[in-house]
Predict the structure.
Amino acid sequence: MRSKVAHGVLRAVDCTAARDVPGVVGAWSAADLPELPPVPYTPLARLSTEDAVAGREWPALVTDRVRYPGEALAVVLGEDRYRAEDGAAEVTATIDPLPAVVTPAAALDDSVRLFDGLSNIALRGEAGEPVDPSVWQDAAAAVEATYRQQLLMPSPMECRTILAVPDGDRLTVWSGHQMPHRLRRELAALLGWSADRIRVVVPDTGGAFGSKSAAFPEFVVVAYLAVKLGRPVRWIEDRLESTLVATRGRGQDQTVHRSGVRPSA
């Protein structure tokens, strides 16, 4: 069950009615799963990402603050997809809306912060070498412009998928994933297991474009519940979910310079 509010304070989630739906195995909010770990984060090379995410925890299910539209508020397990969706439709939530910021430039204002006490600016950096000012002074033409590059939405043939099957003290995971070794390592970390207890199988990725390289909130919930319940748990993202919450790219406000070439005699 996902938030229809882009930004707000979560007051309550009620899964009671969902649990009474025939065929529903269980329904949980974050309050019902206090030991549910947050989404793991693997730093990327050459970026100071550990500092960038410090204090900015990404919960698998919203605990107190909704920070993007479609963020998961509760999970409902059913004997089949139809019963699970019927159950999810019965979950109710109370959210006090807050102002939403939808562009990088607007986020720089800091008047609306996603994390209390922390700036919206998570990372600053520089790349390349300083340019001799004469490059611009002697250029035949120098153009400065500001561009808005909209968010890029990968649209794979197969949306995100995960099946977690526990077997004693081991867990086998099937997923159309780009980085099976990373997924294995991160699932082991969140469960507090050694990596040799987890096997990740990737049959067909079904397209990815960079959108299937992490252990997502849904993956964390599926693996956790499979171990907790001792039974297979599967999640297959539908196209609506993919367009709402799957990984995005770009989304930049850019100020760029471009110099022309002086014609030769």
Remarks:
- The mean pLDDT is 89.
